[in-house]
Amino acid sequence: QKIVFVTGNAGKFNEIQGILSGFGIEVIQNKGDYPEIQADDLEPIAAASAKAAAEDLGIPVLVDDSGIFIKALNGFPGPYSRFVEDHLGNPRVLKLMDGEQNRDAYFKTVVAFCKPGEEPLTFAGIVEGKIAFEERGTGGFGFDPIFDYNGKTFGELGTEFKNTISHRRRAIDSFLNYLKSV
Length: 182
Ligand code: ITT
Ligand code: NA
Known about the structure:
The protein is 38% helix and 26% strand. The chain is of the alpha/beta class. The chain has a single domain, classed as Maf protein, CATH 3.90.950. The protein has a seven-stranded mixed β-sheet with strand order 2-1-3-4-5-6-7. The chain is globular, with a radius of gyration of 16 Å. Sodium ion binds next to loops.
């Protein structure tokens, strides 16, 4: 079985390839860049991207829209995570959290699957953790060095462990349940 995953993000591709290869599914990356809508949550963003890509390519596609939601910042950056990573980066996210005692945060992934001529389906996963006080570890990508999961950051824990418990893994597990049911 093969699945086309539309993403320009190598970290996301490596993780989804790693997870799905364990289930005997080959993942093919399509780097097509489709305009993203703005919305308060990830589901409509992922769904619109999957729909646009499926119609443009004429094949079933998977997309992944993810973000980090920080409680003390009322869920920011959430759907604006890409913009914040590109323009601020982890050091300035840590600055925003200066003096903040409540470090609670979660990562969320919504994967959307769409076939041409059909409506997209979405599958979400979250993992809870805390914003670290400094960047730690070189594994993973994006916000991983500042996301503390039970005392170690995703940067320290690395992709192999991350793939067993992550927001992305949980979203993919839900997608796999759907695939099994059809
Ligand atoms: P696409 O081409 O797939 O859209 P993207 O990089 O725009 O790639 P997102 O909008 O889903 O992807 O990601 C939002 C931001 O959150 C982006 O800066 C990612 O690097 C970061 N991010 C996503 N998943 C992450 C994870 O598991 N760990 C750390 N950072 C993550
Ligand atoms: Na994106």
